Predict the structure.
Amino acid sequence: MDFTRRSIVFGLLAAGLAADEALAATRRRPKSKARPRRSPKGKSRQAAPAAPVQPKKPDGNPLRIPTLVDLDPASPTTLTAGKVDHAFVPDKPAPVAGYGGQHLGPALRIRRGTAPTVTLVNGLDRATNLHWHGLLVEGTADGGHAAVAPGASWSATLACDQPSATCWYHAHGHGRVGEDIHDGLAGFLIVEDPADARLGLPSEWGVDDIPLLIQDKLFDADGRPAYRRDRGTVDHGFRGDRIVVNGTLDAVAEVPQRLVRLRLLNASSARIYRFYFEDERPFRLIATDGGFLAAPVEADTVSLSPGERVEILVDFADGGTALMSTPDEHEHRMGTRTMRIPDSFAAPFRICAFTTEKDGKPSARVPEALAALGEAVEPAQATTRRFVLQLSGGAPLSKSAAHLHDAHAGHGAMASAEADLPVMAINGKTFDPTRIDETVPLGATEIWEVVSPEMAHPFHVHGAHVRVLTEDGGIPKIWNRGVKDTVLVENSARLLVTFTKAAPPTAPFMYHCHVLEHEDAGMMGTFVVKT
Ligand code: C2O
Ligand code: CU
Ligand code: CU
């Protein structure tokens, strides 16, 4: 498939935009001023003497790079959740949260074949917990169900046997995941298979291997993040009007003038990004949520919904550019009516600018092959389950379940004030941590049919790898063809889910919408993986 401007238009069409709007959206994309176009051979060149055009340095703040911490199997790593002061712009500290004294957490790197222990210490004044998004570990280590009291700690041993991947970790206290991640309780978790060193990919952290944790935020007049949980943000998902990358507003990254690997993580509540480079340069998609594709795929746009990750290779030999995104106008479908919800960004906007510097090191090469990954094939026989994601319809929690739910959320007092907010559901049932919704045998591969009747939802499964068989009955989009754990379901998707880790009834896995306000409103279920 040829992946050019046409496919952007195509993607926008799939996202529900009319053709003329889609064309307008691509036309709105500002052209690069940074790179003078070479005049084609044979054309007159005398018009202007070839005065070297000095590209203007983009305005902004230097991109912050999270500290990389290698998890040591010989000694536990402590991660303390707590309040921190963080300056989104230099010299203006705002009270937010994070791990290990940083806003957002350090990037944790785990080597395949090791089983390090991580201890979460709760330095907050309320209960919290920690979930390893994308990591294949048993339910008892998954963390989504735990409730760690203030001052207490919780340890998980992460027995890692999965391919290299860009994963992440974040707080998972039901009812406040949206606010917590907005506040900074999230970080990268890098799985590294030492055998992949042979690929020769750019791998110098923060130099040619650059993590980009992307969030949209609202700020109040004092420059503090101003998360909002109300009817509108719960229904549509919270969207901010400023972009923050690794906690940096108006981020500018300096990269060497050669091949660079970018790890993109959408840690926003609800915003769906459609990325492209300002000068329309193509790049190579090399990995999705669960790891490498079979081979690099050339693309000039990639979409990322909340919770998803991709890795791309970008050639900066010709100089800098900026990573951009189109706005996220989304639609709600109510029976035969469709409501279009405008975005606070009316035009394409910048995620991160890149300036380049020659560092004299040789450029990495794009490998021809990456991993032994076949096409996802429909099994002849498999258990099929169906999940309908619903913006309403869940019966309110029973009294005892509501109590537990508050203990999870760690903010019982707020629960009554939220009584008016929508209650969301999957298959007519709102999240109840005391109920087991599905039981799956260990080692099974099943077909999960996910349906989004009212709007697009990113569907996430804990503790399992997912392949997309079909999207709306057709072949999956280019960025949905690899190994996944979170899939944007625009209308319907047929997923192949493989369960390789056990989860007992006391520590079940979860599946849920990764629009954090939908998850917090109960669009989540539990499942046991039975040995
Ligand atoms: Cu990223 Cu259940 O979470
Ligand atoms: Cu997860
Ligand atoms: Cu949703």
User: Anything to note?
Assistant: The pocket of copper (II) ion (ligand 3) is lined by residues 457, 513, 515, 518, 523 (CB under 6 Å). The longest strand covers residues 77-87. The longest helix spans residues 399-409.
